[in-house]
Description:
This protein is of the alpha+beta class.
Amino acid sequence: MEALATSKHIRISPRKARLVANLIRGKSVDEALGILALTPKKASPILKKIMLSAAANVKFKNDGAVAMDNDTIIVKEIRIDEGATMKRIRPRAQGRAFRILKRTSHIKVVVEA
Length: 113
């Protein structure tokens, strides 16, 4: 049985979030949460929240028939796609303007029991 959790328009660059996602792909939820607790990146608490949501979803889908622990639930897929990019302008010398790109991410976590 598998379940998923998604989160869209998260204000973090997909490239930076993928660094953390690669650490937890294929691990059990307990092991992944331990790794995220010790990873000093901005994406860590974001991925932790989505991971807990996916684990709760698989427990809910199972309808409580079998008591599940987080160590029996595996992170089957974690996908970080690029979301909409916010364009901003930074004033520069002599009336010029440089563009600032504020990138967002769409995160999808699939777990399997």
